[in-house]
Amino acid sequence: MVIRKIQIENYLCYFDTNTFELSEGLNIILGENGEGKTKFFESVDWLFNGENRELDMLVSAKKLNETEIGDSFRVRVSMSVEQYGEKSIITKSFLAKKEKPNECSTSSFMIEGISENSLGERTQVDGSVLLKRVFPTEVLRYSMFKGEAELSIFDNEDALATLVSNFPDVIRYDKYSEKGNLLREKAEKAVEDSSKRNKKKLAEYNVLESEIERLRREINKYEIHLNSTEEEIKKIEINLQDAEKNVSNADALDTFNKRIRGIQEKISNLNIDENYTTALFDENWILVNFESFHKEFAEKVSIHSKTKRELQSDFDTQKGIKEGVKKAKAELLNNTIPLPNNIPSKGIMEEMLNDEICKVCNREAKKGSEAYEFMMKRLKDYLESQVVEENITENDEPLFKFDYTNRLDNLSISHEDNLKNLRLIRTKIKELFEFNEARKKDLAELNEQLLNEKIEREKIIGKSNIAEEKLIDVLKNYNTWQKDLTNKNIEKVDYASKLEKLNAEIDKITERKDNIDTQSANSFEIQTRNILRDIETIFIDTKKKKFDEFIDKLQIKSNIFFKKINIDAFTGTIVFIPRNKINRTIVELELQEDGRTFYKPNQSLLTSMHISILFAISELASEIKEENFPMIFDAPTSSFGENKTAQFLNLIFETENQKILLIKDFLYTDKATKTLSIKKEFENVRRDKAFWVKLERPFDPNNLKTINSQVIPV
Known about the structure:
- The chain has 714 residues and is an alpha+beta fold.
- Among the domains are: 1-135 and 630-714, P-loop containing nucleotide triphosphate hydrolases (Rossmann fold); 291-307 and 339-415, no CATH class.
- The chain contains 18 helices and 19 strands.
- The strands form five sheets. A six-stranded antiparallel beta sheet has the order 2-1-4-5-6-7. Strands 8-14-15-3-18-19 form a six-stranded mixed beta sheet, sandwiched between helices. It has a three-stranded antiparallel beta sheet with strand order 11-12-13.
- The longest helix is centred in the C-terminal third of the chain and has 53 residues, at 468-520.
- The radius of gyration is 49 Å and the shape is elongated.
- It starts with a strand and ends with a strand.
């Protein structure tokens, strides 16, 4: 897309209609401060972003002064562009009506669009839609810059990551990964719902889900700690670098620092696990002497089991005897079923004995006879049966109601099977103690090396060329920062280690949960979930790859421009560093020298660094979108000086896309006559078009009614 023409009408210092016919390449607009250069930039910004408010503040005072009360005129900014062979005109305007001297009302705010095809046919279109089509919002952010301060748009840690994510190659996979995540989550939910229908496994399943959620909270907590620690390490390293600039023999100091960092890293990586209390219970060290207790326990269980069997045998024998007696009685009656003891009744039996006659068979039963004795025995048996029924309850319950003895037997067998593993505990304890002792020895040696290296480093620091009191402060802060750095690096390793363990733990629990899914859920649902898991992983990995590829391209192109802008000068290297920060990726921008952060670069170097990045972004956007977009800069090179500005302009003249630069260089004011002119040096500056914006002379600097900016092609 190319801006062919910009027209400004009655906008602030631009009285009536002022036209800028622009080229496809480098357009330079010269202007002293207060002559209308910045108002040009603001008018274009108003066209892109201006709202319908405080419009009376934008009205040309000169035009308002020359208008009769009650008359109206239009305030307008218009841009003609060419894109894909078609021409478009976008105009933002409003009507100003003079109500009284120096006052006006505004109305009819509008943004109009006209589209013209290759045949010259014009069509009225929605101006807002047309503007977004020809100049997309995500491109506009990296196309217009006011002053050097606005060039540093990447100071915000999310800015670069957001930029990269807006490029098609990355955003395409961003959408894919979001869709993959959504589909995978739905598949996971379907499998979980299916598994939860298995009531036998529901309780265990819920416990596993709860544990996974707990671990995720722990992981999030440690990720926050890790990110915070990394940021603190970065700040400390910058402080150390600042301090080292006050120390002589920086190369030697850097060598010692590298050695010290290497030793400190080795110390940090020496993980000596002496948390024996945890091992005592979690790894069953407490059972190291269990075998003797088990032996005693097994013997007691064996004796108890034998006693139980003996008691049970006696109980069964007695029960068998009772059953034999009953059987014998039955046989005496020829296997007939005898009458109950209460038949005949007690009264009848006594009556028959008194009368000495059996009233059942109606036969005589004299006292002393066999029949009489039989009846007497029946009465006696009845009376005895009544006593038994009142005092003794027959017990048919088993001797041992519960099966505790068998449980003890099973427990003993279980412990017997585990004895082999328990016998290995002593060996494990010995090996761990030997391992830790060896690490302690290594640690002592490393600490001794570290102490010696620090002593040598302090000798180097002592050879400083600054005042003694300042040196004391430097050394004090330096050593404190070194200690802080050591502690923070240890914390970083510790947090990373904990995160690794937590992730391993969550993987194990997830595997157990997946096993339940495999046993309980529908096989088709399982297969679908696994496929969608793989698809999501592919999308995420591909997105990261595209993200990294874009960052690499941006870094390479930025440094190419950076070297060209600062030709024959030391620049350092622009480095983009992607970092994971609490579930999102950020990209940090650093200017480095020899792999370390550049120490206090001057403003000119920072400005050229930011411009180089913007040029690289513009070029990448052109490659990806197959379209160039203009870049508009207001006073981007204030810190350069004219010689470097000339070099800079000659460089960007060779770049492809359209650029509009507003600068105050190459202008000269005669001290005697106050006449403003363009320096001859500007003739050597390569450009496609140039304009000189200056106030129409004479004018009253205290009266806006006399102000009018003229546009003069150069």
